[in-house]
Design a protein that fits this description.
The protein is of the alpha/beta class. The protein has helices at residues 10-30, 36-39, 51-61, 76-79, 86-91, 112-117, 123-132, 153-162, 200-211, 228-235, 242-259, 273-276, 278-287, 354-366, 385-401; strands at 93-97, 167-173, 215-221, 263-267, 296-297, 329-334, 369-375, 422-428, 434-440, 448-451, 461-464, 473-475, 481-484, 499-504. It has a 7-stranded parallel β-sheet with strand order 5-4-3-2-1-7-6.
Length: 508
């Protein structure tokens, strides 16, 4: 059954008509006798571009632009050889936003639609719909309720800037298929034609770039749970490519060319890589796109790519291996432990504390990763106060201790060999020497901290970020330090959660 349809629901009927017209046009476009595609550019999603023609047309449009120093080929060996743009590694901390129609029912998680009508029904979601909505109600009817009437992009940008984050990634489209921009390939199932009647992606991109120095990126779900074209391709064991031609690839070109994202965060890609044309798209992205020199990508480009191919690795949600990795990686996690999208059934115990967040950041950066922290805005466009509080708390901590995070690199030790909850990073200072930072998650008993990893020299000094002067220390046997923490009142502490020691002139 087509999930877009619904008895007695005009929106569902419109969506069904659109899909059927798209299916009809696919046969025309793939036919050699089709003249409409050649005669005029696409102005809506009724006409489907051929994938190869799409790629060639973009290359042709960009032919006169300055070429990159290196041209990548559509093979993983070539694409994986592309150096990661430096800005991403130096940034360390970003904000993730899951926002879509699922923010209207706002129950259980952003997978609400799939939990309601997917292969494995969630009892809580099914009961909720039976008790609160009439028979025949369709998910599409939530679309007009996603109004975002309180959305203020400038206010959001200020919150993200205050968090200390250096980049932000917004969901342009999740698995439900709704696009937060006026896509020509998602008729009446986008934020301009329906719901808020606004270009949400464009507004946030403009606000972030006009009011902050944050890098702006976009999350994009390659697949859609109930899109009939995707279901058709899946039923054909991905031997057909109707959905890719009609929806996913054209939309990727749309968001890159329209919004110039500095991150393309792909997700949700059940199906082989050749089906998704991932390597072909990445080749265009790296060689010819308007963001080719600075765009960053992740590793979710089809079956078997996670933790193996792409830009940086995500491996799995909430990935934090706790040890140094040989490839740049990202720990994406969410303030609400149970959901990426906003949900009304959340409890206080479900939220990460600021201590949890700092511990994740410290361990992630120490092991060479970046942390992407997610919050889910409400359907009316608000960052809920508890999310805002957590982000501002992180910003307050980073204002004092950011030197231990930004532009650092992993030291030879990631965590301490004696004391648990101590994570190390390193940075070259202005005179070319290596400074070591130790993020201490718990205040030591009796104000005395034992460190086993560092080896001191006669010139070693120890200080605490945010506290004037130097701290007293002494050698511990053959290796290590005993550091005396400052005996000050809590009001004089630079922060109330985790403290950073700066160790200078250690033995290399």
């Amino acid at each position: 059954m087509l999930r877009y349809s619904s008895a007695g629901n005009p929106l569902g009927v419109l969506l069904l008509v659109t899909v059927l017209m798209s299916i009809t046009q696919i046969g025309c476009v793939n036919s050699e006798s089709s003249s409409q595609e050649k005669a005029s550019p696409i102005t809506n999603n009724y006409i489907v571009r051929d994938v190869d023609s799409e790629i060639k047309s973009h290359k042709q449009n960009d032919k006169d632009k300055a070429a990159s120093a290196h041209k990548y080929k559509p093979t993983w060996d070539s694409l994986d050889s592309r150096p990661l743009p430096l800005w991403y590694d130096e940034a360390k901390f970003g904000i993730f936003l899951h926002w879509g129609v699922y923010s209207v029912p706002a129950l259980v998680s952003e997978w609400f639609w799939d939990y309601w009508q997917g292969p494995q029904v969630h009892p809580k979601v099914e009961e909720f719909m039976q008790q609160n909505y009439p028979p025949g109600f369709s998910y599409a009817e939530f679309g007009p309720m996603f109004k975002a009437e309180l959305f203020n992009a400038t206010q959001w940008a200020e919150i993200f800037d205050a968090s200390g984050a250096k980049y932000v990634v917004l969901t342009s489209k999740h698995h439900e298929g709704w696009t937060n921009w006026p896509s020509n390939y998602s008729w009446n199932w986008n934020a301009k034609d329906n719901g808020p009647h606004r270009d949400l992606v464009g507004e946030l991109a403009s606000a972030v770039r006009s009011n902050t120095k944050l890098h702006f990126g976009l999350y994009f779900s390659l697949f859609e749970w109930f899109n009939p074209l995707y279901k058709l391709d899946a039923a054909n064991n991905f031997s057909t490519e109707e959905y890719v031609k009609a929806v996913s690839l054209p939309q990727l070109f749309e968001i890159v060319n329209a919004y110039l994202p500095e991150i393309v965060w792909a997700d949700g890609a059940p199906g082989p890589v050749p089906y998704w044309k991932s390597r072909e798209f990445l080749t265009w992205l790296y060689n010819e796109s308007p963001v080719k020199d600075y765009v960053v990508t992740n590793d979710r480009w089809g079956d078997g790519t996670m933790c193996k191919h792409g830009g940086y690795y995500t491996c799995q949600d909430r990935y934090n291996p706790g040890k140094l990795q040989n490839h740049k990686w990202e720990n994406c996690l969410t303030v609400d432990r149970g959901s990426w999208g906003y949900r009304r059934d959340v409890t206080l115990a479900d939220f990460l504390t600021i201590e949890d967040m700092i511990a994740s950041l410290a361990s992630t950066v120490s092991c060479g990763g970046n942390m992407l922290l997610n919050v889910g805005p409400s359907h009316d466009g608000r960052i809920m106060p508890i999310f805002e509080e957590r982000l501002r708390q992180m910003g307050q901590w980073l204002k004092v201790n950011g030197d231990a995070i930004y532009k650092t690199y992993p030291w030879k030790h990631q965590n301490d060999t004696i004391t648990e909850g101590v994570w190390y990073t390193a940075k070259i200072n202005s005179v070319g020497r290596q400074d070591i930072y130790a993020t201490v998650l718990s205040w030591p008993t009796n104000y005395t901290l034992y460190l086993g990893a560092p080896t001191a020299t006669a010139q070693t000094t120890v200080s605490m970020l945010g506290v004037p002067g130097k701290l007293a220390w002494k050698r511990k046997a053959k290796q290590g330090l005993v550091v005396a923490f400052p005996k000050v009142s809590w009001k004089q502490l630079p922060s109330l959660s985790a403290w950073v020691l700066k160790l200078e002139n250690l033995e290399i």
